Sequence to fold (194 residues):
Amino acid sequence: MRNLNTLDAGFQQNGVLITSIDMTVLQVPENENQRQMAKKQILDRLRTIPGVQEAAETVMVPISGNSWNEFVLIDQELKALSNFNAVSDNYFKTLEIPIIMGRDFDNHDNLSSPRVAIINESFKRKLLHDKNPIGKTFRLQVGHEDKDHIYEIVGLVKDTKYLELKEDFRPIVYLPQYQNDKSDMSPTFILRSN
Fold:
């Protein structure tokens, strides 16, 4: 047990609260633009609660045992299976995950803007052979009838654990939550309190 307490998760777990909200109970329409706007309003309200230092939205909660994997194509070559997450702006600040290079997501990363991504150190090392990732692109296969989605890498973050504490660090791609055109009706929010 002591070993688990000393393992580096890559993020700060203390002072973090996780909550999900059922958007159907709030009677939010299933129109994607209205749903995205409602989620942003909820997040803005959560950020104003006394004692809340930071707040963000996420699809996957780290070390929860849940996962989302996709094949990534770099230079037209099938490279590997990578873990994925869709997160809002401030996710990295909320979990105190250092941004090593580039930028965080912001309000400009939405359904009408070019697709962008932030990767972790393991993705850079294993899939980009330690080359500078900023400005590089990769493809995500989305189905037989749809065109592949092309993402430009705009940021690099420190490695974090994904499924569990005991695992080795894995390649992770973070996508902007508000570029996700099939968002969940039960969004998950992460809050850091003092």
